[in-house]
Amino acid sequence: MTEMRPPAALWERDEEVAVITQAVDTLCADRSSPGGLLVLQGEAGFGKTALLAETRRIAEQRGCTVWSARAGETLRSVPFNVVRQLLQPALVSMLPEEAREYLGDWYDIAGPALGITDPGERYADPQGVCEGLVAVVHRLARRDWPLVLLIDDAHWADQETLRWLASFAERLADVCVLVVVARRPGGISEAGARYLDAVAADRPVAVLSALTPEAAAGLTRATLGENADAAFCREVWAVTDGNPYETVELLAKVQDTELEPVEAHAGELRDLNRSARGGGLVARLEQLGIDATRFAWAAAILGNDITVDLVARLSTLNVDAAARCAERLRSARILTVADPSARIRTAPADLEFVNPLIATAVYNSIPDALRRAMHGIAARIVTDSGRGAAAAARHLLEVHPEDDEELVRQLREAAREHLAVGAPDAARRCLERALEEPPRPEVHARVLYELGCATFLTAPARTIGHLRAALGMPGLDGDRRVDAVVRLSQALLHNDQMEEAVRTVEAEASRLGPGPAQMRLRTVQFMWEGIHAGETASPGRSERLAELAATCTGRDNSERALLIVRGFDAMMRGENAEEIVEICDRALVNGRLAPGLGWTDSEWGVELLLMLADTYAYTDRLDRAESLYNEALHAYDTAGWSGGHLALAHAYVGLGRRRRGRLEAAEAALRESLRLAEHVGRGLPLYWTATCNLVDTLLARGHVDEAWEVAERYGFAPPYPSTIVLPDPRSVRGRLLLAVGRVQEGVNELEAAQKAAAVRGHHNPVHVFWAADLARALATEDPVRAARLAVDVRRQAERFGTDTAIGEALRVAAALETGQRAVRLAAQAVAYLESSPCQYEHAAARVEYGILARSVPDLERGLALARSCGADGLVERAREELGAGVGPR
């Protein structure tokens, strides 16, 4: 019997076909045009797959390259399943060397996720892998234009694919490709729904409706002949509710039974329709015999890559019997021949289910115990085929727990493979399932530790629970236990539980005797206390830290880390800058970061190295600071770490450029940091760092309205984060309020900054500059207090000893004076800031001196410096003075 695939599936879809045709024509018209995305949404059986097939036909007719993929309900746990189907066709056709050359740096980042290369030793950053996949499509789209991507049943797509799709949809303006996504409404996890909602945001969504009675009648007569009477046609529509797929299947049943399409037989349609779905389908399957039923069950367990040989092994049939079953199931329209052009597979495929509805019904009909057992057999078959634990993991997840030590081992191995390709959620599922087995007592704590590491980037709160549980049972000893404590404290930090992070490492350090492990924990404790913005630090902390650091020579990384923390603490307190730099230099090896203290090394974390770079930045060693910031940016780019780490790197590159006076370049880096930070989540310390520095940079540029708009959009206002942000956010917020004319609010904010700094002993006038701005704000209203503040600023600056600090203090003093004393102080400020690496401050001092001294040459030099910095407000001020004819009175 010939299988039925009538064009009737497109009845009443003229409008959708027209939209698709126009989108394809637009794609083909101009390769420089932006990309397009269409969403087809409809209930099961409403013709989404048929519309995608029509899209393929239209696109190929116009010479397009078409790649397609289909998600599966039983394949949701397979990471990157759908995106692999889409992109592998173009990549497997290349030689490995060709693919590496073509993809460049993205090969090692996205290649493992796509299954075209083995993963590296390190765990991959999920956001970096996502960015890599976006870049891969951009490159392939340029090569294979015009390119059309078709994704069917997106509501069942794995979360990693949906994350990529949402990210790619944001960049469609930059790449000429047409994406058509078919999905059902609902039926998806919360995270997946967010991604799909982002894909559809502000884009056309074609919501498919059921067939009308007229269309159902037309379809009936087109299939059964014009002699089908009206009552029969009406009953076809009634029993199928106008569902196009059910209508087509019902009419096929009518043909099979040779039922005459007249009113007298209309009553038989309901029974025929029930046999085509749900329990009726299962009953029809059973009528084909036990062997055919076992074959269908095995095919449903496999889900994809269905071959007669593989199904035979899983269903324990010989090959000849399996082939007969396959033919029987094809005749019954349960299975069909796999379409080799639709998508690439991990292995050759002979068969696929006619419709996902059938696959789901068959899978759900398998008795629970048997289904779990068959998944166990499937896992062994996949493992024996050499495809690895990760490929078998989706089957392992379904096996009934029974204290199987080997299963725990396989799941742990699968989790490691998932982490290596950037799929922490898939790793989490494996490890959670391993805990259900459960593991042997001697490995239970290790599984919990591994689970905590797997959830670290995506769910810090879960990490906290897992690691606490792991530390509360035997099995974690020595360095692994210390690693777990440090990781727990990092998770607490990222979850904004700073005080608990400090107590955690302090308590563990107290349990240990003197040695490298205790030194590491003490250093981490000092580090967390050092970046805490509250009042957690214990009395005498800085003194104890200084005493401990004085014994360190930098002979190992624990000592080097302690020296970095000590240098940062001294910088924040405003101690002598030369001594601070000498302390930090001792933490380096031949002027570079020591092995094991790199930006992508996990033992100490990014916070430590940022402390080092920031200390150099605020002690006028900007060359060293910028070298470290740029090294971080390169390291994260190369490693594909495109999440919070890369956002922080861009933020601190921006901070370095702001300190240098390269304001336009600083703004660009900070905006990129904010773009990345938006994907990570608002409210985190990295978000505050990017926002605070962007506001500060815009104020330096003279873009006050824009600075205010950024502050409003990104929530740059109290309450402030519990971690230290550089520069001080209260000081920056106070400066912003003064700039927009909200003087009293600005004064209040600066006074709050004063109190917060005093609690922590932070007296560095460069990064906590509240006193300088407050003195200027109070110059008229309270000149006595303003003068006192100016004296304090100068005293702290001279104690700190950098040219920038002293020059800035002299600028404040000059602003509060008049006559020749003001001129002399301004001249001294210029002299110091000329030797400073901070060119914006030098430019401002030049302009201020030129105004006070009525010096055209100094104004002109200040103008040139302001232009080179991108300080538009300062440029305008200098121009106004020059235009007013500045000169000797």
Rg over CA atoms, rounded to whole Å, is: 34 Å
End-to-end span in angstroms? 107 Å
Q: What would the principal axes of the Cα set say about the shape?
A: elongated
Provide the β-strand percentage band: under 5%
Helical fraction:
55-70%
Question: Runs with pLDDT <50, length 5+?
Answer: 1-6, 342-347
The number of helical elements comes to 44
The structural class is mainly alpha
* Number of E-type strands: 7
Mean pLDDT: 88
**Main sheet summary:** 5 strands, parallel
Q: Which strand order do you get reading across the main beta sheet?
A: 2-3-4-1-5
Keywords: ATP-binding, Nucleotide-binding
Organism: Streptomyces pimonensis
Pfam family, one: AAA_16
Protein name: AAA family ATPase
Can you describe what's shown?
By secondary structure, the protein is mainly α. It is 65% helix and 4% strand. The chain has 44 helices and seven strands. Helix 7 links the parallel strand 3 and strand 4. It is elongated, with a radius of gyration of 34 Å. The N terminus is likely disordered.
